[in-house]
Amino acid sequence: MGAQKSIHAGKAKIDVNVDFTHKLCASLMLPTLRSSGSPFSLVIGSLCIKHPNLFGGSEKLDVSWDKGLYDSNVLVAYRRPRPEWLAQQSFVLQHSLSPEIGIHGIPVNNFSRSGSGGINLSRLSVGMDLKEPASSKWSSTTSIKFEHVRPLNDDGRAISRDFDGFPLTCSGNPHDSMVVLKQESQFAKANDNSFFHFNLQIEQGIPVFSKWIIFNRFKFVASKGIKLGPAFLLTRLTGGSIVGDMAPYQAFSIGGIGSVRGYGEGAVGSGRSCLVANSELTLPLNKMLEGAIFLDCGTDLRSGHLVPGNPALRQGKPGSGVGLGYGLRFKSQFGHFQVDYAINAFQQRTLYFGLSNLPS
Question: What CA–CA distance (Å, rounded) separates 277 from 233?
């Protein structure tokens, strides 16, 4: 239940998308994170402005704004044309605001839901992306960005400690600043019967000033899909670790849709390291509908106590968990949707609505 509109203004294109479906889903299954001040807060939508030839030399400008129930994201990207054999440059400015549920959310209903911990993250980043020319199977992107992170309470005021008095930032100040060098490499291989995807991200905090964060963080995602007659088996393995300086919001959170279903977001645990495995078998029921059974499991590799303030222990998170269940996949001209019914190790059942995100 929404509306989409595209407007052409000269050479620029403006896409507007307003969606009211989230209000319905929220009333059916989601716990209230905070009180809503106005009807506008129950609307999600996006605004995108694109200009393909900003200064007459094929320079591209993309401006996008996305609003969720409790989060928002503004992105401005400027791209200059370069020969195909050279890395493509993009200058990026981004600001996001979102509730910090994965680390400081409060598990409820036997870890099947995560309520608000009253902490939100405001992130501002400015930098440059260099996308290397893609080979037949490999592609890579290098970026260097300045990042400024501020924890906020639900009233929008800057805070430096959580409700238990533990620091929310690495510096102990109301904000953290860092320069991050990031390398992302992707490998993709596919044929009529199977596919394999591999993504590796490595981030390095550069010590420009003595109080700025110095760290090394890596994360990998490996996905494999195989046809088994009319059925399709999809498996995914996700892992990562961080060494050096660390703020609690940099921890890996485990649990929720896209991680271990049957648990709320981050309700399994949060740690300096993580390992999550997903497997899903889908079987077509008709042209638009598929049935699915799945099994998810994840662990913080006993690294939860290494996160500053040990938020996972204070919230009683188990550190590892298993979820299994079944669901439906709907394919339509409006997109792909999924409904999942999962049960966790505490025999608590959870119903999920949303976009299908396992195959990525």
Answer: 14
Whole-structure pTM value: 0.85
Q: In 3D, which of 284, 301, 286, 276 has the Cα closest to residue 358?
A: 276
Contact indicator for 29, 353 with CB cutoff of 8 Å: yes
Q: pLDDT tens-digit profile of 222-277?
A: 999 999 999 999 999 999 999 999 999 999 999 998 899 999 999 999 999 999 99
How does DSSP assign 167-198, residue by residue? Answer: BSSSSSSS-EEEEEEEEEEEEEEE-SSEEEEE
Q: Which of 55, 41, 68, 128 is nearest to 93 (CA)?
A: 128
What is the rounded distance in angstroms from the CA atom of residue 149 to the CA atom of residue 214?
A: 15
> Residue 244's beta-bridge partner residues?
215
Residue 122 Cα to chain centre, angstroms: 15
Distances, alpha carbon 8 to alpha carbons 50, 55, 79, 279, in Å: 10, 18, 20, 44
